[in-house]
Specification:
The complex is a heterodimer of chains A (347) and B (1109).
Chain A (H helix, E strand, L loop, with lengths): L8 H4 L5 H8 L21 H28 L2 E5 L13 H6 L5 E7 L8 E7 L7 H4 L4 H5 L15 E2 L2 E2 L5 H4 L5 E6 L2 E2 L2 E2 L6 H7 L30 H7 L7 E8 L8 E7 L11 E6 L10 H26 L11 H4 L3
Antiparallel strand pairs in A: 1-11, 2-10, 3-9, 3-11, 4-5, 6-7, 6-10, 8-9
Chain B lengths: L4 E6 L2 H7 L15 H10 L2 H12 L11 H33 L2 E6 L2 E6 L7 E6 L7 E7 L5 E5 L1 H4 L4 E5 L9 H4 L4 E6 L10 E5 L9 E3 L4 E2 L4 E3 L3 E9 L5 H5 L9 H34 L17 H13 L6 H19 L13 E2 L5 H4 L4 E4 L6 E12 L2 E3 L10 H9 L2 H12 L4 E4 L5 E4 L3 H12 L2 E7 L2 E6 L2 E11 L7 E8 L5 E7 L1 H4 L10 H12 L2 E11 L1 H15 L5 H12 L4 E12 L3 H10 L3 E5 L4 H10 L9 E6 L4 H18 L5 E7 H10 L1 H10 L2 E5 L3 H13 L4 E5 L5 H6 L2 E5 L6 H5 L2 E3 L4 H41 L10 H11 L1 H5 L9 H6 L5 H4 L6 H25 L7 H23 L5 H22 L9 H7 L1 H28 L3 H11 L16 H11 L8 E3 L8 E3 L11 H8 L9
Helix pairs in contact in B: 2-4, 4-28, 8-9, 10-27, 13-14, 17-18, 19-27, 21-22, 21-23, 22-23, 27-32, 27-33, 32-33, 32-36, 33-34, 33-36
The chains are: A alpha+beta (347), B alpha+beta (1109).
Keywords (chain A): Membrane, Transmembrane, Transmembrane helix
InterPro entries (chain A): CDC50/LEM3_fam
Membrane topology (chain A): Multi-pass membrane protein
């Protein structure tokens, strides 16, 4: 094009044209971000990477699975279901009536220790088919009231166990009201086994969630008695059974710590348990079990993690093998342009 | 005019004050008082927002809410305040700019005294005094000017973007009134109600005594100066004002709120949202019924739940409503905000892109509409203007033919043709006359600059080119002084008196001037115009064959031609004619038509002198751009107002149509309905046959046939439009352009219209995406467009890079947003099966809220930096755009994949959490956090797997987010009153927590990685193949350089014309034996076209039918 053409008319108006100035200043500033040119690493799924990472996962997971299974198997656990057994034969037709009627419901169970159990031995009670996670139940508590004495009136969330005779219940709500109240006594060879009931709840709960100056009031004195009652002279922070109970379970089957036996139990020891069978699980066909268990680094006896680890590790190994075989049998060049259809049939 | 009229009394405040509004400009949408209600109302008119509000209100009912209402209200208020703040900020800026305009000082004349007031206080009927370089504060009717002829010059750049000066004249009745008297002028203007047409103004002016001239003086747009113009080269001007003021000015009226455009992607997201909504309703109903049944059969037995025997009347509704609230997170509340955010970032990337800055003018590309970037990646049809869009619109005089002699054929530049220079020196009279017409038959204004050089201010680029060329050929147009035109030839000065100007109209397609030679008093008519409007009026006996051939020859080369002609007028003839001309030009009725008739009377018996050929160069990189985009499966339609021959030639030059034997042009022509119908049917028949062949068929239609085809044979034409990849529509009007866009849109195609001039504005606004070229025809198109770019070639980058990335990123982001919401929701649903179908929430309020608005929203935002393929690869393999066009990355089936993935992950997370935390560890808060941690870990790995390129920001966002999750939860774990007090510390110390998390990750990601690897390696998509090729450095197919080749029109055109001299007479041959009318234009397999062949071959197999595969 000719360079000596006179400048076009627009240039004449140049300086006075505000839009021209604005346009020039709009030229963007350069930076790698604005140009979308930040250095990037672009990994792709090459056979090498994929096969070796599956391999690696299986190599790591299978030993962990074995270790978990071993840990779980090393845990000695004795489970004793007593809900039906502890009802006299005569009353078994109408268990609900039996449990609701007053009277002595002491029951004795003999448990044989199968294997040596090292201390501490945890004593749990297990409830089945008990919905602590039911929406109506799980919401029915007042954390403020539990924490401090001043909030005793804070019972709005505790419906329907909020007030008794117009007075606020402390602790209010369905959870506290339905406190589990079976008790267990253990003896070995006629000798009382000491059961440590201190420190079964979370330290943080005792110290911060349940107040030291909050005492039970109006508890279980309504027309409808739910579960156990509380010693009104002890502050809530010392009512550990209540604190444990108030940690609601996520599943309808759960265990809660009852106490710890600070003594080794030998194999074939016979433990006599004297229990007060008071708690009503009969109206909803719930089971009650007494559990004695030792603990491992993973907790109680639970094969799930071990089996799952072995399964996942095994599957990864299997996949790694399959991919290796596929790679060897049917090698495929990555990024072969002949797979682009527009290259395959040009016209 | 039969319309409503209004009367404006000049200089009479009392009357007009009450009637019409003042000059206050207001672009504001809100006032302080109505901001909140109006803004809320607008926000709540969207369905999504109504839905969220309903959910939030339901949550206020403690009986049914699973979580703290804050978990919905928090994000909702946040989202609302973000968009309200944005609106308020925009509105505040509008207020500031209005205020600046309103408080500008202007001089007005009141009761004969000049004084300065604020622009907002101007009233209808007051007289405004403007000085040079003043901005016009409102629409004015000119009453006086410093120029004795009553002329003044205005620059209308702000109004229509045209930077050349326009002349405006004082209305004839005020002509010559002394400036002192002007202060006291009184009168009345009768005008129609305000409208927004900036090219028309029909009114009358009547002055009151003592200024009575004649009764009524007509006013046209020529007598007005409009708001925001600048007064230039005129010492002062005054006008009655504001003729229309404030928001009623032409500019104010044409400001419209653009209709929001919805992208195909938004529509798809809405559809998916709707599907999820229905799914949610079904889930809620099923769970609601199940919950009520369970309650009646089982929960009544649970004494510790204490269900009352008699519930309230709404008891049956409680459980379904609880589930509705639990499931409400299925529709992610954050998606709207995330999408808005990333969309504005896409737009910013376009604004920032250095590779789309026009080097010549430093104009950066700009995305005016920030919401539709994804649509760029889904374009199927591009409708493009020719002049100024494909070409530079920089007219250069290249060749001419004077009296049958061709100049400039050898060198390609007539200015350097020795023969021409010689005949100028020899003083050949025809040549000199030819040059004289080039120099003065125009409306160009020469301006002497301070340095002494002469600048030409021309309204048309053609005239500009001609005057400049004449100046180079020693015929310099020096001065236009009143009616005296002064030119300098060699060194002698020649003066002509300009008697009349017969202006150019698009109907007449020619313009003429009548001049008197000051030396000998001879009167001449000098004309220039299109061949079909000059040659038929040649004097009897003159052989015009040579000119016809010249015109055809030039048109074949893609040059614009003008015929120049002259005639000497007898004195009497002129006098007689000029009387009727004057009469016609003051006619009130049918002025234009009558003028045309009068002009016709004198523009006859013309002595045709020759033909000029002006080159409108193709812009750099146009052929490459079109070729790349056509390869990307985009169909091109060229819509131009130009001649058929020129259009076809340009189309060939820029790879629009392939040469024979691949390419085939089908003509649709005809003057009557029947002819058009027959022609259309034949073309359609041919088209149906050829779709199966790898042929590149294009149809050519002109405006007239198009009008008939579109109105009468719409169905057939629509079918044709679908079948044809390429079309050339010539001689079309702006509204026809818009009509064609509408037609394609109605067939459900994504259209992109690109243009640069005012005549493209309608098509640009009509199309799904409007792209404006900020070019020489002004900024009008760029202003109306969604995107403005400096050069046509940037379109390639705009679509292939920005459009494609935007589509990919939004596709991922939107589906991921649904995925993460569904995961958490499925976990809640699964949990409800083990919690007595009572609607308990596994997660607490804080976790739910943070999950949605923080943990999962932040990492996904950095996916705006993700690039699946490098820009270079995309440019080399534009076919990959097909994935975006066909919507392969976001559709119900890809969404089903994400849906399945979320279900799978929910099951994995839930199963592992409840089983590894069973029995004595089954504590609600702990299980909830284990599940949440599992989700977060999976999210991080899903993000990692789906990210194609990791920049530092992605690493920070993904892994930093994971770390932030722990930090936040540790912080919450230190607050005794929070539900999760100490939980996170407790968990982090337990080996079983970590084993559960790693198990979740391995079990959740393993199958997905395996599946992806398998597909990636053994069933790779084209994108995957290219990724592998690009990253492994594998054999990338090279298509040769895609850089713009240095090719000039010169070389091709000259080879063309030399090698194929027969091209001057286009060959016609019947395509079907029974179709004499339907013609197929054959280009002949000439050597020059081999140049195109290797590149065009590849595109053929890739037809738009691919989509059906």
């Amino acid at each position: 094009m000719d360079s000596n053409t006179p400048p076009s008319s627009s240039a004449a108006a140049g300086s006075a044209d505000p839009s021209a100035a604005r346009r020039n200043s709009k030229r963007p500033k350069y930076s790698r971000f604005t140009q979308q040119e930040l250095p990037a690493c672009k990994p792709i799924l090459t056979p090498g990477w994929v096969i070796s990472s599956f391999m690696l996962v299986s190599i790591v997971f299978i030993p962990i699975g074995v270790a978990s299974l071993l840990a779980s198997h090393n845990v000695v656990e004795i489970v004793d279901r007593y809900d039906t057994v502890c009802i006299p034969e005569s009353a078994r037709n109408d268990k609900v009536n039996y449990i609701q009627s007053p009277g002595d419901k002491t029951c004795t169970r003999n448990i044989t220790v199968t294997k040596h159990m090292k201390k501490p031995i945890y004593v749990y009670y297990q409830l089945d088919n008990f919905y602590q996670n039911h929406r109506r139940y799980v919401k029915s508590r007042s954390d403020a009231q539990l924490r401090s004495n001043g909030s005793a009136d804070d019972v709005s969330s505790c419906e329907p166990e909020d007030k008794s005779n117009g007075q606020p219940i402390v602790p209010c709500g369905l959870i506290a009201w339905s406190l589990f109240n079976d008790t267990y006594d253990f003896s070995r060879n006629g000798q009382q086994l000491s059961l440590n009931k201190k420190g079964i709840s979370w330290k943080s709960d005792r110290e911060h969630k349940f107040g030291k100056n909050v005492f039970p009031r109006n508890f279980q004195n309504g027309s409808l008695i739910g579960g156990g009652s509380l010693n009104s002279s002890l502050p809530l922070s010392e009512q550990e059974d209540l604190i444990v109970w108030m940690r609601t379970a996520a599943l309808p089957t759960f265990r809660k710590l009852y106490g710890k036996i600070e003594d080794d139990l030998q194999a074939n020891d016979v433990i006599m348990v004297t229990l007060e069978n008071r708690y009503n699980t009969y109206s909803f066909n719930g089971k009650k079990k007494l559990v004695l268990s030792t603990a491992s680094w993973l907790g109680g006896k639970n094969d799930f993690l071990g089996i799952a680890y072995l399964t996942v590790g095994g599957l990864c190994l299997f996949l790694a093998m399959v991919f290796t075989i596929l790679y060897l049998v049917k090698p495929r060049q990555l990024g072969d342009p002949s797979y682009l259809s527009w290259n395959r049939n040009p016209g | 005019m039969i319309m409503m009229k209004r009367f404006v009394y000049i200089n009479d405040d009392q009357v007009s004050h009450e009637l019409y509004c003042d000059n206050r400009i207001s672009n504001r949408k809100y006032t302080i008082l109505n901001f909140l209600p109006k803004n809320l109302w607008e926000q709540f008119s969207r369905f999504m927002n109504q839905y969220f509000l309903l959910i939030a209100c339901l949550q206020l009912w403690p009986l049914i809410t699973p979580v703290n209402p804050a978990s919905t209200w928090g994000p909702l208020i946040f989202i609302f305040s973000v968009s309200a703040t944005k609106e308020a900020w925009d509105d505040y800026n509008r207020y500031l700019s209005d205020k600046k305009a309103n408080e500008k000082k202007v001089w007005i004349v009141k009761n004969g005294i000049k004084k300065q007031i604020k622009a907002q206080d101007i009233h209808v009927g007051s007289i405004i005094w403007l000085r040079e370089n003043d901005e016009v504060p409102c629409d004015l009717v000119l009453l006086g000017s410093s120029d004795p002829q009553g002329l003044c010059y205005v620059e209308t750049a702000a109004l229509d973007g045209e930077t050349d000066l326009k002349t405006r004249v004082v209305s004839s009745s005020c002509m010559g009134i002394d400036s002192e008297l002007l202060h006291k002028i009184k009168g009345v203007i009768e005008c129609p109600n305000p409208d927004k047409d900036i090219r028309r103004f029909d009114a009358n002016l009547r002055l009151f005594p003592p200024f009575i001239d004649n009764d009524v003086c007509p006013l046209t747009i020529k007598n007005t100066i409009l708001q925001t113009c600048y007064l230039r080269n005129t010492e002062w001007a005054c006008g009655v004002a504001p003729f229309f003021s404030g928001n009623e000015t032409k500019l104010g009226m044409s400001r419209g709120i653009p209709e929001p455009k919805l992208t195909a992607m938004d529509a798809m997201i809405d559809k998916l949202t709707g599907a999820i909504f229905i799914f949610q309703i079904v889930v809620v109903m099923v769970l609601g019924v199940a919950g009520n049944v369970w309650k009646d059969t089982e929960a009544k037995k649970l004494w510790y739940v204490e269900y009352p025997h008699e519930g309230p009347w709404f008891e049956l509704l409680i459980i379904p409503l609880r589930f509705e609230l639990l499931c409400s997170i299925m529709i992610p509340i954050s998606i709207k905000v995330s999408l808005d955010l990333v969309k504005s970032l896409y737009a910013k990337f376009i604004d920032w892109d250095e590779k789309m800055v026009d080097e010549e003018t430093s104009i950066a590309s700009h995305a005016t509409n920030t919401a539709i970037s994804e649509d760029l990646g889904q374009v199927e049809y591009i409708l493009t203007d020719k002049t100024g869009t494909l070409t530079e619109n920089k007219m250069i005089f290249r060749r001419c033919c004077i009296n049958g002699i061709f100049y400039g054929n050898d060198s390609g530049d007539a200015l350097k043709d020795v023969e021409l220079l010689n005949s100028i020196e020899a003083g050949s009279p025809d040549v000199i006359r030819f040059l004289t017409i080039m120099a003065i038959c125009n409306t160009v204004i020469p301006v002497q600059s301070k340095s002494g050089a002469i600048l030409y201010k021309a309204q048309s680029q053609d005239e500009d080119a001609l005057v400049h060329a004449a100046a180079k050929l020693y015929m310099v147009f020096l001065n236009r002084n009143a009616n005296i035109l002064e030119i300098k030839f060699n060194s002698s000065s020649i003066q002509y008196e300009l008697l009349e100007t017969l202006e150019f109209t698009s109907d007449r397609k020619r313009m003429s001037v009548v001049v008197k030679d000051c030396k000998n008093g001879k009167i001449f008519l000098l004309s220039k115009g299109a061949d079909e409007s000059i040659l038929p009026y040649a004097i009897a006996g003159q052989q015009t064959r040579a000119f016809v051939e010249a015109v055809e020859h030039y048109a074949q080369m893609g040059l614009r031609t003008l015929c120049l002609a002259w005639r000497e007028l007898m004195n009497d003839e002129y006098r007689e004619w000029s009387l009727s001309f004057k009469e016609a030009s003051s006619a009130l009725v049918d002025r234009e038509w009558r003028l045309a008739e009068i002009c016709q009377r004198i523009e006859r018996d013309l002595q045709v002198l020759g033909v000029t050929a002006i080159e409108d160069r193709l812009q750099d990189g146009v052929p490459e751009t079109i070729e790349t985009l056509r390869k990307a499966g985009i169909n091109f339609w060229m819509l131009t107002g130009d001649k058929q021959d020129t259009a076809i030639q340009i189309a060939r030059l820029c790879n629009f149509i392939s040469p024979e034997p691949k390419g085939q042009l089908l003509m649709i022509n005809g003057k009557t309905e029947d002819e058009v119908r027959v022609s259309l049917e034949r073309v359609l028949r041919t088209m149906r046959i050829t779709t199966s062949e790898p042929k590149d068929v294009a149809f050519v239609v002109d405006g007239w046939a198009l009008e008939i085809a579109v109105t009468r044979y719409r169905k057939a034409f629509t079918e044709l439009a679908i079948l044809s990849r390429t079309a050339i529509c010539c001689r079309v009007t702006p509204s026809q352009k818009a009509q064609l866009v509408q037609l394609l849109k109605s067939c459900d195609y994504r259209t992109l219209a690109i243009g640069d001039g005012g005549n493209d504005v309608r098509m640009i606004q009509q199309a799904d995406i409007g792209v404006g070229i900020s070019g020489r025809e002004g900024l009008q198109a760029a202003r109306a467009a969604d995107y403005s770019i400096g050069k046509f070639r940037f379109l390639r980058r705009l679509i292939l890079v920005h459009g494609r990335y935007s589509y990919n990123r939004t596709a991922f982001l939107s589906q991921y947003s649904f995925y993460k919401s569904l995961v958490i929701c499925f976990i809640q649903i699964l949990f409800s099966f083990i919690s007595g179908v009572s609607g308990t929430s596994l997660f607490n309020s804080i976790s739910l809220m943070a999950y949605n608005v923080f943990y999962t929203s932040v990492p996904v935002l950095v996916s705006v930096l993700d690039k699946d393929l490098t820009e270079e690869t995309v440019m080399q393999h534009p076919q990959i755009l097909f994935y975006c066009q066909a919507g392969r990355l976001l559709n119900p089936s890809t969404f089903a994949g994400w849906f399945g993935r979320s279900l799978f992950h929910a099951i994995v997370v839930f199963t592992i959490s409840i089983h590894s935390y069973a029995y004595e560890k089954s504590e609600l808060e702990e299980v909830s956090l284990v599940a949440l941690s599992g989700c977060i870990w999976l999210q991080a790995f899903v993000m990692t797997l789906e990210t194609n390129s990791f920049t530092i920001l992605q690493h920070i966002a993904i892994w930093g987010n994971l770390a932030a999750f722990y930090v936040i939860n540790w912080i919450f774990s230190t607050i005794p009153s929070s539900g999760m007090y100490t939980i996170m510390f407790r968990l982090c110390r337990e080996p079983s927590y970590w084993t559960a998390i790693f198990l979740t990750v391995a079990a959740g990601m393993g199958p997905i990685v395996a599946l992806k690897y398998f597909r990636y390696t053994y069933r790779p998509s084209k994108i995957n193949t290219l990724q592998q090729a690009e990253r492994l450095g594998g054999p990338i197919l090279s298509l040769g350089s895609i850089e713009p080749q240095a090719r000039t029109i010169e070389r091709e055109v000259s080879t063309l014309s030399i090698a194929q001299p027969k091209m001057r007479n286009p060959m016609y041959e019947p395509l079907l034996s029974d179709s004499p009318n339907s013609t197929r234009r054959s280009f002949g397999p000439g050597t020059p076209f081999d140049f195109f062949q290797p590149q065009t071959r590849l595109s053929a197999g890739y037809s738009r039918n691919c989509k059906d595969n």
